[in-house]
Structure formats: C-alpha cells, structure tokens
Amino acid sequence: MSEAVFTKERHIRYFLRCLKTFLPELYTSNDSNRILLAFFTVAGLDLLGVLQSKTTPEERQGYIEWIYHCQVPSGGFRGFTGTDFGTERRTRENEAWDPANVPSTFFALVILLILGDDLSRVKRTECLRWLPKMQRSDGSFGEVLGLGDQVEGGGDLRFCCFAAGTRYLLRGKSAAGLDGVQDIDVEKLVAFIESCQAYDGGMAEGPYCEAHSGHTYCAIGALIFLDRLSNGSKRVSLVSPGSQRYESLIRWLVSRQTAELGEEDDEDSDDADGPAGDDDVQTLTKAVDRLNLDESIDQLSDLPPPTKESLQWAGFNGRCNKYADTCYSFWNTATLDMLGKLPMVDAAGNRQYLLEKTQHLIGGFGKGVGEPPDLLHSYFGLVSLAFQGEQGLDSVDPALCATHRTTQHLHSLPWWQETLTD
Ligand SMILES: [Zn+2]
Questions:
Q1: Tell me, what's the pLDDT at 232?
Q2: CA 43 to ligand 1 center in whole angstroms
Q3: Which residues have CB less than 5 Å away from ligand 1 (the ion)?
Q4: CA angle (177 as vertex; 174, 178 as ends), nearest 5
Q5: Contact, 67 vs 35, CB < 8 A?
Q6: What is the overall mean pLDDT for the chain?
Q7: CA of 289 to the centre of ligand 1 (A)
Q8: pLDDT band for position 298 (cuts 50, 70, 90)
Q9: Against a cut of 0.85, is the pTM above it?
Q10: How remote is the CA of residue 154 from the centroid of ligand 1, in Å?
Q11: I want to staple 162 with a disulfide (CB 3.0 to 4.6 A). Which of 106, 150, 249, 393 is the partner?
Q12: Distance CA 279, CA 352 (A)
C-alpha cells in the first residue's frame, strides 16, 4: 500500500487563489459573512506557514484596515461592510440596522491577531460592555442587538462559544483596566452549556435536542475559554476526567469515527421530498397496508461487515448514522484534543480518509468523497491533520482554531498580561 501524500503546494495555491482572485459564485449567499471567509483564508495560509512570505506587508496592512473598517463605534464587529451607512449618519435610534455580530466579533479579533496586530485600535471596553447585553436570561447568547436593544438570533452553543472566546481575547489575564465593566454571567453560561448534554453523552444545540459534533466542539471550546481565565479554580464536570458527564462525552466523540464514507452517489434522494400529492398519499397508504415488520426485515439486504480494506479510511460524522464529512474530522478531533483524549482516535484512518478521499486535485478539501473544495472544509481538513502532526503544518490551538503562534502573540501583548496590583 502506498503512503498517502499531503499535497502542501497545491493547498497553498488554493488558499492564495481564494485570497487574491474572485471566489466562485456559490459563495454569493455568504456575502454578509465575509469575515468568516476571510478567517478561513488568512488562517489557512498561516497554518501552511506562508502568510508572511506569500503576502506583502502592505497587503497584510490592507487586510487589517478592512477588519477595523468592520468595527462598529459602539463596540464589536459587523460581518461585512454592506450595512455600514457611515458614522456621521449613525444614531442611537438607527444603529440596530448596522449591528455588531457575536461570531463576526470573535473572528475579526482572531484574524487581527494572526496578522500580527496588537488590537490597540479595538474598542475593548465598549465591546466588553456590549457582550453581557447579548446574554439571555437562560445563560445563552444571541447574535445581534436589534431595535429596542432586543437580543436577536443565536441561542445555541455556537454563540456561547464565540461570546466566551471574545471575552477571553479581550478581558486579559486579570481584567486589568476594566473597573466598572460588568462581566457576562459565567455561572449561567456554564449551567446552559451543561443543560445541552444529550442522553448519549454528546452536546446538542439546546436542552433535549439531538447531539451534534459542531455544538459539542462549541460547548467544550466555551468551557476551555472560561477555564483559561479562571486559573483552573472552578471545575466543571463536563471537562473533568472521571466524571460521568466527561466519560460519556468522550465515548460519544470517539464513536463518531466511521468507515461509512457515503461513496455511492445517492445524495439526491433527499431532494425528491416535496409536498405530498394525491399519488404520494395513495402510494403511502398502500405501503402502510402492506406493512409487515417480519417480512420487511427478512427482505433487508445483508450489511457487509467491515473488512481490513474498508477500515483503512475512517473519517468522522457529526451525528449517529451519518456518513463521514471532512469538517467533522475537525469538530471531533479538536474537541478530543481539548479534552486530552486525541490519542483515542484512529489517526492513520483519519489521515488516509482526508488525503485520499476528500483532498482535492486542485488543492483544498471537499466536504465528502469526490466533492469540490470549499474554504470551510479546506481549512478544517488542514487543522485536523495538524492535530495529528502532519509535516508542513504548524501546531494549532484547538479552542482558538488558529496556530499556537497566534495564542502566544495574544499572551505576549502587554495589556493582556497585565496583572492587578493591590
Ligand atoms: Zn462538513
């Protein structure tokens, strides 16, 4: 069996194309989310170790200026410049039409750090005053502040993670210089996160929902961000080895690795689900009449057991009974890495899946077998390989979802390090 090859040069060219030429038309609907696309592009080149060599200082300064242009005067960042109607026309009454956005704020800050900015132009106090306003009474976070300061959107674990991440980035080690700035309600946030653990151990978007790897990553990411600022003084059972919550979570995460790759081209079958017409109803009635469980079971085809051959490629899914998908190689391994249990996965199977099944000929990674590359799956494919020590990739901080170099840069900033003197 030949060794799977990581085509680093092609990935560099893929990310540079995304940075310096137009993105394909399919990205049009993501226009209001440009900061996220910028994050994947800049972070991808940084992870590949070429951000400094393949862009000029002037270009990087231009990217920094664009991010600051997305900062709203009252604190936080918008996801693109399309809602900006100018500071001179902005009033307290109309600012809800150009709101700061919780995920965009987190990504804007991380991009600035990747680009080497010291965050000195970030409206730190304003942003940290805005953040608690985004928290709902159940402890979760919304996405934007609407008319009448109403919290709108969000409510699931993604927004909890970005809010906790923003707090971590801006509060600094000991919240120096933030006297009188009210913090978010950490206890309530932790209680909300814990309430999202499903019966099978995974984390769901809300209480009593289905466990999902993306939300699981966000739950643990949020707890890690909170923990980094609490100096380990508060133990949360979800991230405490030995607790029932922790052990069932690990079991659920490890069980997401699968050799079911969905290679057969049967993806279109879902699209046929339109509103039921008369014919559909009749067919359904006949089908129900014929329903005989024993007979149906006898007619099921045999499921071939996995073989040594089929187990060579083992990606990850995000929910039970789903096929593997490149991004879940990230959501699951990143979470296991944060929990100190990454060695429990079949790293060789994951590598083989990513490099031989979803790594694309032109660079980047597709979502599944044979799919074209896109920015999200390309970045997450690289990050999952980085966790496993792939040659040519820098090491990644799983919570920040950027290189350890980025975290070190944050921790080196004088205002972040400052400790309270008493
Ligand atoms: Zn995906």
A1: 64
A2: 18
A3: 325, 327, 367
A4: 80
A5: yes
A6: 92
A7: 39
A8: confident
A9: yes
A10: 20
A11: 106
A12: 46
In angstroms, what is the span from residue 112 Cα to ligand 1's centroid? Answer: 26
Pair of tokens at residue 190: 């932790």
380 C-alpha vs ligand 1 centroid, how far in Å? 9
CA distance 152 to 132: 14
CA of 330 to the centre of ligand 1 (A): 9
Query: pLDDT tens, 142-170?
Result: 999 999 999 999 999 999 999 999 999 99
pLDDT at 174 over 70: yes
Please say whether the beta carbons of 211 and 204 come within 8 A.
yes
DSSP letter at 135? B
The pLDDT, as a whole number, for residue 1 is 57
For 397, half-sphere exposure in the C-beta direction (CA atoms, 13 angstrom radius) is: 21
The CA 368 to ligand 1 mean position distance, Å, reads 8
**Predicted confidence (pLDDT) at residue 75 exceeds the cutoff of 50:** yes
Residue recorded with tokens 């209001």: 32
Is the Cβ–Cβ distance between 347 and 414 less than 8 Å?
no
What would you measure as the largest C-alpha separation in the chain, in angstroms? Answer: 79
Measured in Å, residue 11 CA sits from the centre of ligand 1 at 18
Q: How would you class 100 by CB atoms within 10 Å of its CB: exposed for 0-12, middle for 13-18, buried for 19 or more? A: buried
Is the Cβ–Cβ distance between 378 and 365 less than 8 Å? Answer: yes
Give residue 198 CA to ligand 1 midpoint distance, Å. 21
Q: Does domain 56-183 have CATH number 1.50.10.20?
A: yes
**Residue 264 has what pLDDT?**
63
List the domain boundaries for the chain.
Answer: 56-183, 185-254
- Percent of the chain with pLDDT strictly greater than 70: 94
Give the confidence band of 266 by pLDDT, cuts at 50, 70, 90.
very low
Find the 316 Cα to ligand 1 centroid distance in Å.
Answer: 10
Selection from 83, 82, 81 nearest residue 146 by Cα: 83
Cα distance between residue 109 and residue 166, in whole Å: 8
Q: How far apart are CA 416 and CA 307, in angstroms?
A: 52
Predicted pLDDT of residue 267: 47
What's the CA angle centered on 165, arms 161 and 168, to 5 degrees? 145
Distance in Å, CA 37 to ligand 1 centroid: 15
Model pLDDT, residue 229: 82
